[in-house]
Amino acid sequence: MLIIGHRGAMGYEPENTLRSFRKAIELGVDMIELDVYLLNDRSLVVIHDDTVDRTTNGKGYVLDQTFEEIRQLDAGRGEKIPTLQEVLDLADRKISVNIELKGEHTAGPVARVIQEYVTNNGWQFEKFSVSSFNHHELQAFKKLLPQVKIGALIVGIPVTYAKFAEELGAYSVNVSLEFINQAFVNDAHERGLKIFVFTVNERDDSERMKRLGVDGIFSNYPDKVR
Ligand code: G3P
Ligand code: CA
User: Fold this and answer.
1) Which of 87, 92, 67 is nearest to 20 (CA)?
2) Which of 23, 58, 102, 169 is the right S-S partner for 52, CB 3.0 to 4.6 Å?
3) How far apart are CA 153 and CA 135, in angstroms?
4) Annotated catalytic, 189?
């Protein structure tokens, strides 16, 4: 079962900061997960919420900020909100990266960054995966870079189980912990899909995920759930 560092290792360090990703890598995760938005100046910034209020000392919507304004904020312990490229440079091909498309219109810019890192920086497509709750954004990404694995995020259990993810051509279906059950795992596996579950922070839950046959878990405390 893969252990994926959720927003880095957000149980220990300010989420979605370089410090958090460094900590996750130190803890030996198999993959790091991050969230991206596209600013008006086309920069891709790594932050979870649509406002900067909860995670920084600033106020307002992420998309109302200029890149310069975003960079002046303290995202915790003196850390800046990183760009996608800064996180990839930190990962430096040594670890897999799951990029969650949070903001709209992120599919194209993220596809371009991945292509650039493969072409110019020696990365391989296999090291990347792209996920989203916005399945339209995922579909757009899949058309641009079909070589990269996509993960369809969902909170709930559809009547047709993982059919939607199969139709999207997804590699995985990424389900919330409160809804995952054996029927869903079985259905996804029968369709040839992997199952990743978020967010698993307790040992009891990680043991239960192993028993269900889940393929990977996102965790804020990657060392506790191994
Ligand atoms: O990708 C798993 C998880 O990160 C999705 O939920 O809200 O933490 O981005 P959220
Ligand atoms: Ca996320």
Assistant:
1) 87
2) 58
3) 8
4) no
Give CA separation, 171 vs 9, 146, 153, 213, in Å: 24, 11, 11, 16
**Ligand 1 and 174: CB distance under 6 A:** yes
User: Which positions ≥6 away from 92 have C-beta within 8 Å?
Assistant: none
pLDDT digits (tens, 9 = 90+) for 178-208: 999 999 999 999 999 999 999 999 999 999 9
Which atom belonging to ligand 1 lies closest to the Cα atom of 131? 1
Based on the residue annotation, tell me whether 6 is a catalytic residue of this protein.
yes
CA distances (Å), 154 to each of 97, 105, 109, 140, 220, in order?
A: 19, 19, 23, 18, 19
Instruction: Determine the Cα–Cα distance for residues 166 and 152; give it in Å rounded to an integer.
Output: 9
From the CA of 191, how far away is ligand 2's center (Å)? 24
> pLDDT (tens digit, 9 = 90+) per residue, 78-88?
999 999 999 99
How much is the pLDDT for 204?
A: 98
97: alpha, beta or left? (left if phi > 0; alpha if psi -120 to 50): beta
Point out the residues of the chain with pLDDT beneath 70.
none
In one-letter notation, the amino acid at residue 90 is: L
pTM across the whole model: 0.98
pLDDT of amino acid 46: 98
Is the CB of residue 9 less than 8 Å from the CB of residue 20?
yes
